[in-house]
Task: structure prediction
Amino acid sequence: MNFQLSPALLELQARTRRFIAEQVIPYERDPRQTDHGPTDALRAELIARARDAGLLTVHASKALGGLHLSHIEKAVVFEEAGYSPLGPVAMNIHAPDEGNIHLMEAVATDAQKVRWLAPLVAGRTRSCFAMTEPAPGAGSDPSMLQTTAIRDGDHYRITGSKWLITGAEGAAFAIIMARLEDGRATMFLADMAQPAIVIERQMDSLDRCFAGGHCVVHFNDLRVPASDVLGEVGEGFRYAQVRLAPARLTHCMRWLGAARRAHDVALDYARRRQAFGKRLGDHEGVGFMLADNDMDLHLARMAIGYCAEVLDRADAGEEGGAARANFESSRTKVICSEKTWAVVDRSVQVLGGSGVTGETVVERIFRDIRPFRIYDGPSEVHRWSLAKKLLKA
Amino acid sequence: MNFQLSPALLELQARTRRFIAEQVIPYERDPRQTDHGPTDALRAELIARARDAGLLTVHASKALGGLHLSHIEKAVVFEEAGYSPLGPVAMNIHAPDEGNIHLMEAVATDAQKVRWLAPLVAGRTRSCFAMTEPAPGAGSDPSMLQTTAIRDGDHYRITGSKWLITGAEGAAFAIIMARLEDGRATMFLADMAQPAIVIERQMDSLDRCFAGGHCVVHFNDLRVPASDVLGEVGEGFRYAQVRLAPARLTHCMRWLGAARRAHDVALDYARRRQAFGKRLGDHEGVGFMLADNDMDLHLARMAIGYCAEVLDRADAGEEGGAARANFESSRTKVICSEKTWAVVDRSVQVLGGSGVTGETVVERIFRDIRPFRIYDGPSEVHRWSLAKKLLKA
Amino acid sequence: MNFQLSPALLELQARTRRFIAEQVIPYERDPRQTDHGPTDALRAELIARARDAGLLTVHASKALGGLHLSHIEKAVVFEEAGYSPLGPVAMNIHAPDEGNIHLMEAVATDAQKVRWLAPLVAGRTRSCFAMTEPAPGAGSDPSMLQTTAIRDGDHYRITGSKWLITGAEGAAFAIIMARLEDGRATMFLADMAQPAIVIERQMDSLDRCFAGGHCVVHFNDLRVPASDVLGEVGEGFRYAQVRLAPARLTHCMRWLGAARRAHDVALDYARRRQAFGKRLGDHEGVGFMLADNDMDLHLARMAIGYCAEVLDRADAGEEGGAARANFESSRTKVICSEKTWAVVDRSVQVLGGSGVTGETVVERIFRDIRPFRIYDGPSEVHRWSLAKKLLKA
Amino acid sequence: MNFQLSPALLELQARTRRFIAEQVIPYERDPRQTDHGPTDALRAELIARARDAGLLTVHASKALGGLHLSHIEKAVVFEEAGYSPLGPVAMNIHAPDEGNIHLMEAVATDAQKVRWLAPLVAGRTRSCFAMTEPAPGAGSDPSMLQTTAIRDGDHYRITGSKWLITGAEGAAFAIIMARLEDGRATMFLADMAQPAIVIERQMDSLDRCFAGGHCVVHFNDLRVPASDVLGEVGEGFRYAQVRLAPARLTHCMRWLGAARRAHDVALDYARRRQAFGKRLGDHEGVGFMLADNDMDLHLARMAIGYCAEVLDRADAGEEGGAARANFESSRTKVICSEKTWAVVDRSVQVLGGSGVTGETVVERIFRDIRPFRIYDGPSEVHRWSLAKKLLKA
Result:
C-alpha cells in the first residue's frame, strides 16, 4: 500500500492545474454562459486551448488521440479539471460525453467509431445519452423503461419520451436506450438532426454547468437501421452498467475538484475577513468548518483512489472484478456526493452573504453540485444496493 | 400551557390558506418573475388581490389599515403566506418591508409616517434597509459599520457603500444606517430617487423571491435633513435590535410555510411514483425522510409559537422581556433556519430528478431558503451569542 | 396557544425540584446501588421521603392516593423527577410500574386493584411487564409473540420465555402477555412467587437505573385463574397500545430531566475549567455544544408538552383522539430519545476525561439513557410507522 | 498509489486474524475481567498464547524480540488485534504500554532499557504514563502542567497529583511528566512500588478494557535519581508529541478492529433476525445503517493507511515529516474516533435490546470506545489545531 504518485503523473497533475488556473478560470465570468451551460462558441474556444495544451479528451485511447489514462490517473487529472466549472468542458471530459466515449470505445463497431466517436473525441461534436424517462418510466429504477424499439425489417422504430437528457440540445447524436418487443433493453445510435427527434424544451435546472442543459426529448417513430445498434442486441442494461461504474467515478473526481475550489475560496476569505475582533477563521465555529472540509476532501480523495484501483484491476481482468467494481463505485459515489456537498455547503456558510451571491464561484458550484446526490443513482438507491450485497456476502 | 388556536385565528388561518391556494399559487408560473424577484407589475396585481381578500399588510396597526396581529397570530398567518414564494409579496409582509413597517410604527414621527409609512403599508411603495456593507464593513458584526453621517448644519451628509440591500431597486425610500462622527450609529430615512444614491447593480443571487433583488448601493455625500433621522440620534444599533428580533421571527414563519410546501410536494410524489416494485414512499429510505420532515416542521412550528409568546409578553412590558426576546429569537432563528433547510433538502432528494429542476416549486424554494441560514445572523453567530448567555446565566 | 404554567403547577414543579435537590440527589453516591439498580432497601428509604413530601405516585388517581395529574402536569413534574437517576424510583413513577399503574387503573377489576394495584401505588411492591421475548419471539414486532396461554377449565396454562423484563427480580407480580390458541393476545396478572415462574438471570445491561434490572424469565406451564385475566380476553395488543402511548411519553419526560441534569453539569464545568488561556465555555467549539444542548432540551420539552395535550384531549374523548395520540407519541418518542441522547453525549464531550468516569453523574446518565432509543419502539420502527401514516393521510 | 498489501503482510494479517479468532475470543466471557480491566492472571495467560503464536509485542524492534513493524504494517496487524477487546492485551500492544515502548526505544538509555523496557516488551511487566492531571492541571492543554520536579543534588523531588492514569494499578513503573523550576517539562522513570507513590483509587469508568483501569495517583516528594530522567532534561513536551502521534494512530488501528467487530455482529444479527415479515436487514432503515457502517469502516481504514505512510516517511527522515505527521495524526484521530463511534452506535441500534445488554460483545465495545473521542486530544482540540494549520498554510 502506498499513496505516492509517479513523477509522470505528478507532472501531468501540475500541467493540468496550471492549464485550469491560467487558461480556464479567466473564462469563468465570460458572458457566453447561459442557464443551460456554456454556449458552443465558448466551448469551442476552450477546447482549442486544451488541444494546444495537449489536454484534450485525455481519457480516450491513444489511437483516438487521448492519453489512455488509467482510472488512477484520471482520478488525479479530473480532480484538477473540476477545479473550474468550465474545466471539464474545456478538456472534453464532461458528462455525458466522457462516459459515452468510454462505452463506445468498448462496444462500438469500427464504422460507428469513424462516424460518431472520432469527431466526439476530437471535440468537434457533442453527444447525449437518452435513458431517463419521466414517470411512470425509467428513473432510478431502469427496469421501468418504457421507450420501445420495434423491429421492422432491417430497421427498428423507436418511440418514447425521455427527460433530463443532458446535452441533447446541440448534440450531434444520441445513444438511445429502448426496450424490444421481447422486453430486452438495447442501445441505439442516432443522429439528432432528424424530424422524428423533437427536443420539447430545455428544463429549468439547478445546475448550469452542462453544455446543452437538460432536455425533454421525444422519439416519434424514429427509424434506426439495425447496423446502428450499439453493441449487442439485448445488452442494454449490461452496457448501462459498463458505462455507469466508471462514469459515476469520474463524476466523483470532477466534483472533488469543484469542492476543493469552494473550500479554497472559503479558506482564503476566512484568512482575510475580520469579524468580532479577529480573523474570521480564528473563530472556532468557522475554523471547525474548515477542518471538516479538509477531512471530507481527504476522505473523498482516498475513496476515489481506492475505487480507481479496483476499476483498473477489473479492467485488467481480475476475477470478480466487475462485481467488485460495481460495489465499489456505488460506495464511492455515496461517499463523494455527500462529502463534496457538505464541503460546498460549509464553504457557502463561511462566506456568508458572499456565499449566496455570484460574488464568488462558490454559489455556482453549490448549484451545480447538488444534483450529484441524485443522478447516477440517488444515495438511497446505492445504500440499499450496498446493504443487499453486505447481507449476502 | 395549551396549543389550541382561537376560533377567530383558525378562521384567519383558513382564509389565508384559501387565498394562497386559489389566488396566489396560480401565479407561480407567471413570466413576470426575474432572477431579481417578481416585477412590480406582478406585485401590484397580487397586492390588489390581497387587498380584496382583506389580507394586505395584516401585521400593521389597525390605524394604518392592518389587523394588528400579535406575534402568535402572525406565526399562524405568515406560515400560510409563505406556502407560496409569492405569498409574502402578495400580502405585503415580505422582507424588508415587513420589518421596516414594524420599526417605523414604533419610532417614526407622525410626519414620517404620513410621508413614507402610509403608502408602504398600503402596498403602493416598497422600501429597503441599508445596513450591510461589503468587507471590511459591517456584515455579521454590525460594529464594523463604516458608512458615515457627518452633521452639517441642520443636515447630515451620508457617505458609504452598502451591499446585499434587498429591494433597493424599485424602492421608494431607504432606512440608512450610518455612523456619526462620535461613533454612534443612527438611522436615516431618505427617498431613493436622488442623484446622490447610486444603485451600482443587482447582485446575482441564489434566491429569487425578493422584489428588487439584492443590490450594491452607494451613498455619495447624500444630504439628509435632521428631521429625517429615524427615531433618536445615536440609537441605531438599538433600533436594529428592535427591528431584528421580530424580523428574524417573521422570516422563520414564512420559511416554515415554504418548507411545508416542499414537504407536501415531496409527499405527494412519494405517494404516486413507483420504483423497484412499490410506491416510492413505501421504501423506508424515503419514508424516513418524510418522517424526519414531519418532525422538523413540527419542531420549528413549536419553537416559533414559543418565541412569539415571548415577544408578545415583551411587547406587553414584561420585566426582562427584551433580553428574553433577544435570546429566544436567536435560538428560534437557528432552529428554524436549519430545520426548514433540512426539510427542503430532503424534499429535493425525495423528488429525485424533478427536485433539481423547475418541474416543481421545490427547486425554487431550495434556492430561496438557503440564504436564511446566513442573513439576520448566521447560525454560528447565534450559537456563539446563545453560549455566552448560557454561560453567564 | 400559550406556554404558561398555572400557579398551582408552578408550585408543584418547584416543590418537586426542591425535593429532588434536597432529598434525592444526596443519595446518588449511596452504595446500595448495583449494576441492576438500587436495592429495595434504598428504594424503600427514598419512597418514605417522597411519601412525607406528598410526592409519591403522583400520577395515580386521588382515590388511590395520587394527585391524578393530567399528561401536561406529568410533563412538568416527571421532568423534575428525572433530574436525578434516583428521582423516579423515589417518587414511584419509574418504568414499568408507572405504566402498569396507568393500565391497571383503566382496565383492572376492583378485586385486582385491591390485591395488586393498591400496594403498588403505595410503593410497597414493585411489578413487571412481561411482553418482550428473545428471538424468534416478540421484540419490536409484537405480532411475533410466542408465549402461549392454553385454556384449561377455569384456568389458563402459560408457557414461554421472556427477556429484558425490567424489574422482574423483586417484583411482587407480573402482567404477562400471551397468545391464546386462537392467536389473540391476552394479558394476565400473576404473583411472581410461584415455582412455575423462573428468573433465569439478571442480564448485564448498559443502564443501571431500573430497580431489579432486566431479567430473563420463564413461564413453565404457569396456571392462572381466568379471573386474573387483565381486562378483556383477546385485547392484549390493544391494551399494550393503551399502556404504551402514555408510557412512552413519561419516558420522554423523565429522560428530559436527566438530559437537563447532564447539560447543567457540563455547563457548570465549562464555566469553571480553564484551557488554552480561557474558560472552556469561551471556546466556540465548546460553547456551540452548550447552545445545541439548550436548543435540543427546549425542543424536546415543546414536543412533550404538545403530545401531552394531545393525550389529555384523547382522554377527554376527543374524536379521533386515540389515533392522534398514537401518532403523536411515536413522533415525540423519536424526537426526545434522539435529542436527549445528543445532549448527554455532548455533555460527556464537554466534560472530557471527567465525562467518561464516575466523577460526575453524567457518565451514569449516558449509560442509562442510551437504551431509550431502542425500547418502547426503536427510532426506526417509529419513523416507519410515522411515514405510513403520513403517506395515508 | 496502490492499495495492495504484500504477501508477507497478508500472511501476518491472516495469522493474527486466526490467533484472535481461535485463541483470544474464547476468553471474552472469562470471569477474570473486572470493571478495571482483565486481571494480571488472565493477561499472563493471554500473553503466553501470543508468545507461542509469535505475535507478542510485534511492534518492538527485532533486538528486543518484536517484528519491528512499520506503521503501515501495524495498521494491518493492530486492526486485527482490536477485533477482540482482549486482543491488544494478549499481544502486548495496548495503551499505554505500546506507546511507552515506542518512546523508550527512541530515547531511553541502555541501562534504562535493560531495567525497564526489556521486561515490558517481554510482557512480564506493565507500565503507566503519568501526564494528565485533574483541574486546574494539565488536561487537554498540556501547558497547564502542575506537577513539579525540583532538583536536589543528583536527584529530583517530584510532587503532584495525576488522574486518569491508565494501568497505574499493577504497573511496574511509570513515566512521569513534571515541570522543572524553570518551567520546562521533563520525563522521569520510576518504579511504582515506592511509598512516595500513592494510588488513591481506581476511577469508575465507562471503559473496562485497560488492564489496571484508570487511577488517581499522587507523587509525594518522590526522589528520582538524575540518571532516571527519560531522554533529555526539558524535552518533556517534545517527547510527549513523539509518543503521541504514533500512539494516537495505534489507537485508531485497534478501535477500527473493534468497530469492525461490532459491525460484523450486527450484520450477522440482521441476516438472521426476522421482524415485520422479513429479515431485519431487508428493512431499508436497518440496511442503510449497515451500509453506513461499511462506508465509515472503509474511510477510517483509508485514513489510517495514509497517515501510517506519512509517519513511515517521517521516520525515514523526510523533510518536514514531523510537522506532516503531526497534522496527519490529528486529522486521522478525529476521523477514526468519530467514524468508529458512529459504527458502534449504529451496531447497538441494529441489535436492539441485545445491543444494550451483555448478550453480545457490542455493548462492551460501545462502552470501551466512547472515551476515544476524548483522550489523546478531544475532537474539538484537534479540529482547532487543524484549522490553525490550514489558515497558516
User: Anything to note?
Assistant: The CA atoms of residues 170 and 350 of chain C lie 38 Å apart. DSSP finds eleven helices and twelve strands in chain C. The radius of gyration of chain C is 21 Å. The longest helix of chain C spans residues 236-272.
